[in-house]
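Notes from hallway chat w/ T.B., transcribed later so I don't forget. T.B. wanted the structure written out for a chain they're using in a teaching module, and asked if we could keep both sequence and structure tokens in one place. Agreed to drop them here.
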Amino acid sequence: MANNRFPQYLSSPVQVLWFELDEVGIIFACLSLALIFGGWFWWIAVIAVPWGYRVFKSKNPKGFANNLIYLLGLKELPNYPGAFQDRYEE
């Protein structure tokens, strides 16, 4: 029989060590830039950018990143009208 494990809290975010998944993506992006371009600036950015993002994220409500991406027009939310639509018809 398969060992199916369910998380204790279904709404908890996916984590790698003590970082959430979006923070891990930012760390890997900064690390990639540091490996490609080199220089002390990029290696400091590997630590400073994720730290700044975490501080910014802690001051905003949950889910602000999805709303920000939606308002910038980079992602459409399924079954929702456009961000600037002011008239709705059912």
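Follow-up for T.B.: The chain has three helices and two strands. Might be a good example for the class.
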